[in-house]
Amino acid sequence: MKKGKLVIFVDAYPHKYVEFFNSTLPKSMIARKLKPTFGFSINQKALLFDGQYPDEFGYFNEWRLKPKCIGTSFLSPIDKLLSYFPHKIEGLFHRLYTRLVGEDYYRIPFAMKGFFLRNPTEVYNRNYPLPTELSNNKWSKFLYRDFNSPERDNLNFKKIKNHINKSKNPEELIFLCLADLDSGLHKVSGTGDSAIQLCKDYCYKISEIVNLYSSKFKDNEITVLSDHGMSTIEGNVNLDLNLNIGKTGYNSYLYFLDATMCRVWYFDENLKELINKHLLSNENVKKLSKSERIKYKCLSSDFGDDIFTLKKDNVMFAPSFYGRKSVKGMHGYIPDYKSQFGIYISNKNLNEKEINAEEVYSHLFN
User: Fold this and answer.
1) Segments of the chain scoring below 50 in pLDDT
2) What one-character DSSP code corresponds to residue 347?
3) Do strands 315-317 and 261-266 pair parallel, antiparallel, or not at all (unpaired)?
4) Which of the 8 DSSP states describes residue 119?
5) Is the peptide bond before 14 cis (omega within 30 degrees of 0)?
6) What is residue 328's DSSP assignment?
7) CA 351, 11, 62, 269 torsion: positive or negative?
8) Hey, CA dihedral for 351, 47, 33, 284, is it positive or negative?
9) Is the pTM of this model over 0.90?
10) Rounded CA gap, 148 and 325, in Å?
């Protein structure tokens, strides 16, 4: 008889607080450090749950450059006007644009909104465009996106608890996905009393589900994992490319400014040296080398002719295309920082003391 599985994914649970699980889970559950790859959650999840790096998956981070189009450069006067207004007024204009076009473009400048497209949804969602282990009907999926509520994770906990209580199928494959720890740690930072309390709350609720499942299906495989940790932000890095380099477009250059990386496309090669000089003059900024891009398998120029990131994990780019101000906690740095490590807790017999993100897929699905 085939054995079932329970996989619980909790976005952004830091390895720093893995000790909270020591006294709450069955003794057969062994906790390990999970080292992420480079990139934001869309790429972390593609590697964890589909074994795909950006060059294989075809996407890097949430946004990609459109093929040549009309663009929205004609809206640039709005950006200049909004720079004189408070943060909330700027946000209102962006929300109005979102309602008008039916797509949330966050705080991408109005002059640049038309140059970018949003990438496909996460690998575990039902409308994911590529076939994956989680996209077939073999898995019973409990996804936070199924609830349109600020209490979506709590509602998801209740739903899966009720499901396990009623379940009589020891061969069932169950996947639980939780997201709001990530948003909570972005607000309070990766350290401190608030972060500790948030992680403890998730630890106890996850442990309740694991213990319930284990008591019913004691021989089944159970895994609890996260995709990354969270650092604490102490300062901002303002690149101000438009002011220092000039107008963007298909005849000059384009860039996408994530919270921890800046991707640049050069359409006028004469600007390459100038842009590199400007960005690298900031002591906090480094450029990914070719060997690093090969290592993280994000070599395609579709992801940026150059990718710049940060040398430290306690600063972030602000303003960025996600907001004018910084948040208190962030991820998406070079994965060697301890703050970026996630968790991998399993009752499966594994030899490794530390799990790399690229190893997770084979452990979960083989």
Assistant:
1) none
2) S
3) unpaired
4) P
5) no
6) S
7) negative
8) positive
9) yes
10) 26
